[in-house]
Design brief:
There is one protein chain. A 3-stranded mixed β-sheet has the order 2-1-6. A 3-stranded antiparallel β-sheet has the order 4-3-5, with no helix packed on it. The relative contact order is 0.26. The chain has 2 helices and 6 strands. With about 110 residues, it is an alpha+beta fold.
């Protein structure tokens, strides 16, 4: 489960942010996670309590996750389509030649603290 490693890195980033922004507590953090990252939001949510347990300033921080569906844009017909549901094949023209438009996002998109 690589989600625990990501959770620990997020906590380090939040602690650095707290120091830079002179915050005493972070109550909520929202992650944006793309479908194509391989990160399983449910696993991230499950390991979050263990990851924050040793941090005094983040130990009560609630984790929220916004999931972003993976979409590709076909080079052949220029239409966008959901990649995973269509097994990486454009449903409009049958091409396998596309660029990912969304789905690789992994970022802290919102922090609530004081």
């Amino acid at each position: 489960m690589h989600e625990l490693g990501y959770a620990i890195e997020i906590i380090r980033t939040l602690e650095d942010f707290m120091e830079t922004e002179h915050l005493s507590v972070i109550k909520e953090v929202t992650l944006t996670v793309g479908e194509a990252t391989g990160i399983v939001p449910r696993f991230m949510m499950e390991c979050w309590p263990a990851a924050i347990a040793d941090s005094d300033k983040i130990k009560d921080c609630e984790l929220k996750i916004k999931e972003v569906k993976a979409f590709g844009e076909c080079h052949n017909c220029d239409k966008q389509f959901p990649v995973a549901e269509n097994k990486r094949i454009c449903p409009f023209c049958g091409s396998e030649d596309y660029d990912m438009v969304t789905g690789y996002e992994f970022e802290i998109s919102e922090i609530k603290g004081h």
